[in-house]
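ok here's the first one, seq then struct tokens
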Amino acid sequence: MVTQQDIQKFSEQCKQIFLQLSRDIIGQKEVVENTVIAMIAGGNVLLEGVPGVGKTRLVRSLGRVFDLPFSRIQFTPDLMPADVTGTNIIVKDPDGNSSFKFQPGPIFSNIILADEINRATPKTQSALLEAMQEHTVTVMGVSRKMEEPFFVLATQNPIEQDGTYPLPEAQMDRFMFKILVPNPSLAELMDIVSMTQKTMAEVADPACSGTDLLAMRATANQIPVAEEVLRYAMRLVASTHADSEYASQAAKKYIRIGASPRAGQAIISAAKVLALIKGRFNVAYSDLNQLAYPVFRHRIKLNFEAIANGVTADKVIEMIIDEMDKRPKAEAVSATPLEETAPFEEEETSPVEEETKPRRRGLFKK
């Protein structure tokens, strides 16, 4: 059971993590927060942005802050699966006898930077699938377990087309978050240039060990989720499917393929971490709405009408959330601070539902 002391320790560690990351990363508050949330929750992250916005620097800084072994794989069209996973090599003992020995690849680390992941061929990208999902690597019929914690933080450039390959849908689904890294503002740009004139190296100090990170994850997993909040989260996922009975109008109009069940798992796991970061011990509807963007944007596939009209995935998600917020939902579980409880409020109902739903007596209005 989570105690007040556990929550306090979690909060202090998060403050130190964000403080140290701010020494290397100027601005990008939402990007940094979402990346840390995904790592605490145990998920992989896909960072998308134009060159020079700090994607690679962020991942290197995370390796320093979490004090974990860090490995960088530069994806290129000629990269082979064995270059990622490793391979068996022939070695000779002092007597001249030959034998096979496994030479681990760069994937055998705690934090993997898959830089420009969309430059590698699908065959090479598929070498990451097993590691991302099962945290194991199988070479020549032998499976080897990855050391925990294990994360794949991948970057990709959205504007280049030559020499790039779209990521397979199965691989995209294994990223907990897809985070868009925007260009810095003028003030942030001035601070970036001033900082890098002194040194290009990362200066962040360790703020959390791998053991501490696993303990934070265990704490977050014990955060309760009210049944109504859980149902709201699953309704969010179901509303992205145009053929679902809970389909939203935005999904019927713009979505060809909706989010997978992994989206439901991801949004609940991440919402527990976000609740703790915000100083609460319960997940709120606002947590789910905030995390819907990084969880859904790479899992929904837009149809031709959306593409032709320039409607982005984030815009569709915004439409779905707006539509969901207009529907009745229980308000019994709200964004309450620690050690506070919210008074019970009755469900709001639309006039149509009021006419069709059965009358309830007793404590409820007729």
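and now the second one, same deal
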Amino acid sequence: MEIWSVDRIEGNTVILINSEKKILDVPISFFSEPIAEGNVVIRQAPEKFSVDFEKTAEKKRELFDLQKKIFSDS
């Protein structure tokens, strides 16, 4: 199972990045649901990705907690 993060969306192309900083450009048609920057996605097949809503929410919580820590320690 390949896990990627949506770095950005440029027109009909989704730019993905993984934990090893590898970048992958895929057509937006490879996604069956709406996607947004920051979503965590899983490659289901060579031309099929799906959003992992649980991992996306977890990632957002971690980033929010880090942001709170940074600004409360200043």
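notes on #2: The longest helix spans residues 53-72. Helices lie at 53-72.
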